[in-house]
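Example 367.
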Amino acid sequence: MGHLYCGKCEAMYELDDPRWRCDCGSYLDIEFKPSFDPVAISTGPRNLWRYRGAIPIGDDANIVSLSEGFTPLADMQIGNVKTKVKLDHLSPTGSFKDRGATVLVSRFKELGIGSVVEDSSGNAGSAIAAYCARAGIECTVFVPETARPEKVALIRSHGAEVKVVAGGREDAADAAMEAAESTYYASHAWNPFFLQGTKTFAYEICEQLAWRAPDAVVLPVGNGTLLLGASIGFKELLAAGFIDTMPELIAVQSSQCDPLAQAYRGDLAEPAAITAGATVADGIAVAAPLRGRQILEAVRESGGSFISVDDTEIEAARREIRKHGYSIEPTSAAAPAGLLRYRFKDKRVVTVFTGHGRKPGAPGANL
Ligand SMILES: Cc1ncc(COP(=O)(O)O)c(C=O)c1O
Ligand SMILES: [Zn+2]
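Predicted structure in complex with pyridoxal-5'-phosphate:
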């Protein structure tokens, strides 16, 4: 059906190899030829599994789904920019991470894995916890002590064990990797199957635009799982002849933690070495993104760019979105804040609400 591939040392592994990284220590990608059947898509379920032929899971019986994806694409005017917004904050666990989680946890089921560990500051953790609960897979999530309490409560509510780690995101990742020696590492940043789910974001946008690509897509970037998925998805549609052009990918980071935007501006191939400051956009505060080189390549290849936005702009965008009636979390407001900065003369632009503003567990805390 395809294989796992290392872009660093060019090693290849069978697709059914359960490994989550290359022998050389680098991350892996999936090489796989998706199939798109327009009739099967248009008559398929109203969720991301309508693109079944493009998702590398072998047996239907292993699909673990909460009917995620196929979120609305709403018309909106933000500031003076007319745009369309993909409402991924309406996903089952409240963020776009459900796209990656449904495919990743289906993969665990296919491999017969009964217990996994993951590290996350919140949304990915609650998505993986929910899908593992659905699949009957034991799940432990390592969270940094700085994680928002309402997100931690959500992870616990799905029956996952939460281990709070002193320090930041990188310390939580180290602790999870250590624990993974005796179980399976379900990292959404490392495991390329997660991107096989997030790529459906691109498929849906094009299908909802009657199989035309927009000119630009503006999206928030931390570890880049949405951006890399979008890049894969648009490229696959282009290769299959479903669209004629590749949209510019416009990646938005917080100016308090923008290693990729700085690398872009400085013409670097790898993320810039930075010291992160505090930001309301906790979900994109990733100082050393694992797939940083890949993200920079994907944005440059698309003809896109990076934008850094500060907390004041993020909060202002969030207040404006509230006036449109939507509640999104601060990380998610980075995208519309970036949209307001960018000059899109006569361009058809799509942006995304990646995370819902109302999370159970601490009522009111995240409004
Ligand atoms: C709401 C929200 N938006 C965007 C992102 C960024 O995703 P990524 O780190 O994969 O780039 C996250 C990550 O946690 C998130 O929670
Ligand atoms: Zn390698």
